[in-house]
Amino acid sequence: MNDHYYTRDPQSASRPAECTFEYRGVRLAFTTDAGVFSRGEVDTGTRLLLEALPEEMAGDILDLGCGWGVIGISVAKKWPGARVTMADVNCRALALSRENAARNRAEVTCTESDGMAAFEGKAFDAVITNPPIRAGKQVIYKMFADAAACLKPGGALYLVIRKQQGAESCIRYLQTVYPRVEKISKSGGFWVLKAWS
């Protein structure tokens, strides 16, 4: 089996790497590692996704496929009143997320979950994801549909996807699940989409 960042137990040798990130005036520091998406830096898509989030975030927020934690920790530090849950299938990623949350004094909950599987019966005001595109459309489209079922009234899914990796077909799919879909930002071939009811 190939060792992808959406593998539960990465077999690649650990190679920790540090990085820093400033989000809307909040300085953060992270440990990243091999076997987890975007070792050593905050990737372009995630930066764009974070920049495109609303001016205020509140309520129950899910960082779906959290990796080493930059989205959930950034949200928790910028809007400390939000209740942030971070989820990933990758155990190494979750360990890093817990470590990085403690390091940045971010109050979050970290949960092992294959997509939305651990959240049946839960409800969120927002689900934010830089989805694992390489896992394939079947996997990520299920994540988007399952997220719709877990959103509170007025809640929204925020995601980033590259145009060349199927952004237009992704919009068409989202329109079959969500009443409203909007491209809220784009840069360098990346699109940030918001889907809500």
Rg, rounded, reads 15 Å
Which CATH-level-2 architecture? 3-Layer(aba) Sandwich
CATH hierarchy, class: Alpha Beta
Number of spatially distinct domains: 1
Which helices and strands occur, and which strands form pairs?
Blueprint: E1 17-23, E2 26-32, H1 44-52, E3 60-64, H2 70-78, E4 83-88, H3 91-103, E5 108-112, E6 124-129, H4 137-149, E7 151-162, H5 167-177, E8 180-187, E9 190-196
Parallel strand pairs: 3-4, 3-6, 4-5, 6-7
Antiparallel strand pairs: 1-2, 7-9, 8-9
Helix pairs in contact: 4-5
How would you characterize this protein structure?
This protein has 197 residues and is an alpha/beta fold. The protein has one domain (17-196): 3-Layer(aba) Sandwich (Rossmann fold). The chain is built from five helices and nine strands. It has helices at 44-52, 70-78, 91-103, 137-149, 167-177; strands at 17-23, 26-32, 60-64, 83-88, 108-112, 124-129, 151-162, 180-187, 190-196. The strands form two sheets. It has a seven-stranded mixed β-sheet with strand order 5-4-3-6-7-9-8, with helices on both faces. The protein has a two-stranded antiparallel ribbon with strand order 1-2. A hairpin with a 2-residue loop joins strand 8 and strand 9 (190-196). Helix 4 (137-149) runs parallel beside helix 5. The longest helix is centred in the middle third of the chain and has 13 residues, at 91-103. The model has no long low-confidence stretch (mean pLDDT 92).
